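Hello,

Our lab assistant flagged a job as stuck in the queue for most of the afternoon. It eventually completed. Since we weren't sure the result was trustworthy after the delay, we are filing this so someone can double-check. Below is the sequence as submitted and the structure that was eventually returned. Let us know if re-running is recommended.
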Amino acid sequence: MLWARLSVFAGDFSLDAAQQVCAHSPLGETEIADLLAGLVTKSLLVRDKWPDGERCRQLDTVRAYGGEWLRRLGEEQSQQSRHLAWCQAFAEQGERDWFGPGQAAVFHSARREHTHLFSALDSALSTPGQEEAGLRLAGTLWFYWVGCGLLGDGRYWLDRALAAASRLTPDRLKALWGTGYVAILQGDSAVAVSMLEDCRAQALRIDDDAAYAYATHRLGCTALIRDEHDVAQKYFETALARYAALGELNSNVLMARIELAMAFAFQGDLERAVEVCQQARHICDVHGERWGKAYVLYVLSFAPWSCPSNSSPCSMRSAAAAATPPCFKGRPTASGGGSVFPSSALHTSTLRTMPPAPSVARSWDRRTSTWPSRAAPSSASTKPSPWHWTQRRSRAEPCQAPRRGHVPSGAASSRTNWKDRTRSARL
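-- returned structure --
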């Protein structure tokens, strides 16, 4: 019976997961460990050792046979529901732990259970009566879609869930603002605005203040990437006021503070930007938040950088010094090339004012392993190199696939020489 019940796991699983999903009448929780060991002994399960503990998996044929027995036992629907409930509890725990020092652990555990999460979503959204449970799971996993770089997957599951479950519920509103968030990061601002406005309108209908605050917050992000800084400021301030009234404090609330600071900075109000960022940094230090703190340090560095050195206030200089990690002090930085804010993407104002990232690559001297000053670039950086040639080529013309049967210039002679050498070696 355990073999049949384990067939709901699409990938490898832990003992704890097997106990939570499969331990129900007539199997007790204390029996699961011994039964798993017996299945391993009979080669029906494969046990793998990982740094975070042991996990078991089944071959596809073995799992398919177990799934057939599960259907014959009449437990397929109930077992899939238990698996979905386990995935929902896992997602809710990850959502809570995402705001705090456990972000790296949440990322790794979510990647480990990636196959199960997708399997549960597909099963729920394909089973009549389970669509709203799938919608709830897709919305709860916003931190996985946004914070762990699965924008395409998140957009697919959220769109599919919203299409499958149309009833107006708090879970649907959460999926709406979550989809708007993902759409912003994908550069699809028009769809994001449409969904966020729809979320706000429907939130007013059912008095869901939290959904209204989150949608307002993300509308501020769309205004920010459109260079509508004053509009973005109003959205962020409204959202933060509602967050405070609700007692909300998580990564989204923290990012609203940081994005408000960005709006101030891009309007030239650097003092207020630094003040808001210092408050956000204090929250990060208290709660062990690392994801948001990276963006706090970015804005704290941007404020004094964008202000002339002779007029930069002392508070900005000290903030920049405190924001710069010790290993980077005294080295040139590339602020505009690699920073992608979760809610503002590649902000056009930043890109217009900041230096490009390739300048760092050109200034690093590999022979001496030093960082020369900007005024005196290294001699190695003045010579054309394959890296420079690649950059010029990529800007001048698109990459073209070679034609079938086409031999590049000089390749024929090289091939001939190689054949001659091979023939000589054989002789």
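-- support follow-up --
The delay was a queue issue, not a problem with the job. The result is valid. The chain is about 65% helix and 0% strand. Residues 324-427 have pLDDT under 50 and may be disordered.
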